[in-house]
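Form 7-S
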Amino acid sequence: MTLDLSAAGARTPRIATRGETVPTVPPASTTADAVDVTALLERGRTLTTPVLRAAINRLAPPMDTVAAYHFGWIDAAGKPADGDGGKAVRPALAVLSAQVTGAAPEVGVPGAVAVELVHNFSLLHDDLMDGDEQRRHRDTVWKVHGPAQAILVGDALFALANELLLEIGTVEAGRATRRLTSATRALIDGQAQDISYEHRDRVSVEECLEMEGNKTGALLACACSIGAVLGGADDHTADTLERYGYHLGLAFQAVDDLLGIWGDPEATGKQTWSDLRQRKKSLPVVAALAAGGPASEHLGKLLAADARSSDFETFSEEEFAARAALIEEAGGREWTAGEARRQHAIAIEALDSIHMPDQVRAQFVELADFVVVRKR
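Output:
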């Protein structure tokens, strides 16, 4: 198979020799003059954090302390900290989706918190499975508190997410819970696919997109609909918002895949060439392998040898840089940037099939633009 890279605007690549910030991915449109995306993200964080903290306080010791460390509220010694709590895109989308129905953003808060709990359940387990020692510029939970606590706290967050929704006791809460559990199952499917792909020499672009749709798209889709469901939205509205979120999730993951190879460690909080060190079959890699040509063939031989290598862990920066250069030369970087733009455009188009206040629509568009124009 030869992958058509023309849609991504492939051109003579600039070969990277060290970890770099990913170039801006131009959004399809912008409403920057009308919408302050920083304020939207901060609103989501401000509305959800007190409820999230109260939920974590329900956990039995020491899980409450371990979870508080994971969320950045305390340091490894248990002292109060002001850690990086992440971008808060999902909470922002969840509270915004409530406004599609005319409800107040606060209506979406239980859904926002539930989604955030499931997201962090996945991070705790992913860090352990991937062997990641750093997240958000500090040691991961399993590194500080041990693998057992990472597993237990992750499980507890998942259970807590469903508990919070079901406590509302309404028909809408039941509908929201069903959507959340379906998204969680897809997320787990995606993680299982991701792990299995690490042990294969080749993965198709279609398989990679399916995996990323499960692992990232499903939960972001849920975030985009759960507030609306709690606000009484019908299934057509909720399904359409999920379609927006699913394709936004694919755009989000495409950018993440770029950052996973070429991201600036100062911005991402991860090592240089992070995904290459973990042998991840991310979009730039699979696109480069499918492209054909000398760089693609050379890359394929190197990665196949890497999979059998007993000294892979001792590879130098130059060896990872050489693999990143081949990915770029084969067109994988450009194709992935183009795919981020394509998925972004599909997400925005989905918004046209449902009625919502103009300002709410503008905020959805601006949040989508933010997802594909970022450095971490």
